[in-house]
Amino acid sequence: MKFIFKISLLILAAIVFVVILLFGYRDITLETLMSKYGRSPSSFIAIDGMNVHYRDEGSSVLDSIPIVLIHGTGSSLHTFNGWVAELKDNYRVLRMDLPAYGLTGPFRKGDYSMQSYVNFIHAFLSAKGIDRCILGGNSLGGGIAWNFALDYPDMVHKLILIDASGYAIKAQSTPLAFTIAQTPIINKLFTFITPRFIARKSVENVYADKSKVTEVLVDRYFELTLRKGNRQAFIDKLTAPKGQSRSKEIKRITQKTLVLWGEEDALIPMEAAYKFNAQLPNNKLVILKGLGHVPMEENPKKSILPLLSFLQENDSLYQQ
């Protein structure tokens, strides 16, 4: 019996060794990541003890009110690359890596509450000398944007909600990385055993057209996950207490709002889009056929068309 037990332990140890050998990844140094993902026009700014990665592009002369874009969970400022390429000739556009993601890294105090993110955006805008902006966000970024509009209404000229979080609606399908990060014990292994295929499956989950999930795209998501502290921060964010929802306050947001949604979004289904449309007193809902949870990344040219119309409209109220 002891012999069998020893053999079993040896087999288990061998399996663990092979798994670590094949799927265990060390952190990638910040210097290495910066050389690939933090080149010009990237800049860094000190906020609350963090060296925050951001990009400030376009014309500050042609448009006095800048556009500020906030990415979602597990993503980075690069998710808006396609949009910014179209916008920067006529608008000033800012975007940043939120704490826990991209090159910015974890919150210094480990507080991943919605209020902490709202406070972060306020600190970022203050550091950049911006007292009024057009604020937009995707997924988590959209949730941060509308919560910010509630707390600092005078700082938000217009609002852009792209497949935004905010309502308690069950996902039809959840990215594999999200599921792992929220599973006790297994999520502990995720901090050093992080198979690349998890990144691929997770990105495919939020795209309607899987053929658009390229190796370069997967590399970006995967490699930025390996920035020091990001894997633990990813877990900490997804397992943080949810806090009390402010969805009942959404009806207080009076800013002109574009609600932009991918028809094939399985993470935050269109039911949420209709709720925003019903609750926001001054909004326009645009459903993007054939696109998923990150329409601005999956098809920038198609998804930016309603945004351009929205930006060019005057400030009269939408008619519901």
Record keyword descriptors for this entry.
320 residues; alpha/beta; Rossmann fold; eight-stranded mixed β-sheet; 41% helix
Describe the structure.
The chain has 320 residues and is α/β, with parallel strands linked by helices. Helix 3 crosses helix 13 and helix 8 packs across helix 9. The C terminus is likely disordered. Helix content is 41%, strand content 16%. The protein is built from 13 helices and eight strands. The protein has one domain: 3-Layer(aba) Sandwich (Rossmann fold).
Q: Tell me about the biggest sheet? A: 8 strands, mixed
Order of helices and strands: HHEEEHEHEHEHHHHHEHEHH
Alpha carbon gap, first and last residue: 75 Å
Strand content: 15-25%
